[in-house]
Amino acid sequence: MKLALKCANPAEWLALRAGLVPEPAAEAWGGMALSGVVVAAVRSGVTARLAGGQATAPKIAADLGLDPLPTRLLLDCLRSAGYVTERSGRYRLTRRGRRWLDPASRLSVAAYVEGAGDYWSWWAGLSDTMRTGTSSGSHEAGPADPYWQRYMAGQRELARLSATEITKKLPMPRRPRALLDLGGGHGWYSASLCRRYPGLTATVLDLPGSAAVGREIIAEADLSDRVLFRDGDVTTADLGGGYDAVLCFNLIHHLAPAQAAVLLRRIRAALKPGGTLAILDVFAEPGRRASAHADMLALFVYLSSGARVHTPGELDGWLRDAGFGSRREIPMLRMPGLSLRVAA
Ligand SMILES: C[S@@+](CC[C@H](N)C(=O)[O-])C[C@H]1O[C@@H](n2cnc3c(N)ncnc32)[C@H](O)[C@@H]1O
């Protein structure tokens, strides 16, 4: 994936091609503006209101207790970004807007977008981070901090998008009974696998803030007897043993290389013979091929917790050293840049 300016007409195409457009100025200004508009549209309730039916800007503002002028200005920005259309002063969600931002859509990423506003201060502090090497320390937030709620609600939405594909493609031992989901947070992947395999029970091991939100999500899904939660840090907690499968989804990038290597050895010891380890994460070779997604994510995880995206070669070496003989990658469609790797 690339993040880039797109031209809206032939004259703009020519100007871009000819190098006349001051692209860094447009990127510095426009990236921030677009993020501000989309996050505010969700946080203020504008997109949820539009999902309930088309309306004029004054009516939307009145319904939500907002000021009519900035509300109309925001709606116009949403229109230029392709999320709403406007006819005779009435705004309505486009198909794309409804698909991704209607909270009732099964593809909604509205909670993720709402939580993304938490990251503005991280990016604002980037030049300080460059000097000091410090990160936002997001995983050190107290367990009662509302940050965890927003973080997990967003991650669960992303998981809901890819869970069906992953559950279908993941090779599991026959009649699996015990699953360990490390850093499983919201518990959605565990829940999907438990639904597919009737004899399966999952244990999610995660930091207390994530686990608390996960318990609520799984209780709402009426699966608390199949998906159990344990508070703990994967680098120090006892993992237990006798698992048919272990999930390590979007966790390894939060660990330093030495921690990841040790964890994979402990996972191997916790699996039954022939058990499956599934890893979902971004692995990138720095400088090999420019990929905005991988590069920005690498910087983002550093900003979030001082962590880093590892290379496919590093992962393969850790898996081999841990004693996993079979290692392969399963292509994924839904989340570009993420790869699903399975070892046994
Ligand atoms: C990006 S979220 C991924 C959640 C879920 N596995 C998924 O893929 O949607 C990362 C999760 O790892 C957890 N985590 C990070 N470091 C951890 C650690 N040292 N021990 C346990 N959990 C950790 C976070 O609390 C969070 O729930």
UniProtKB/TrEMBL annotation:
GO MF term (any one): O-methyltransferase activity
UniProt KW keywords: Methyltransferase, S-adenosyl-L-methionine, Transferase
Entry's transmembrane regions: none
GO BP term, example: methylation
Span of the signal peptide: none
Coiled-coil residues: none
Protein name: Class I SAM-dependent methyltransferase
Naturally occurring in which organism (per UniProt): Trebonia kvetii
Organism taxonomic ancestry: Bacteria, Bacillati, Actinomycetota, Actinomycetes, Streptosporangiales
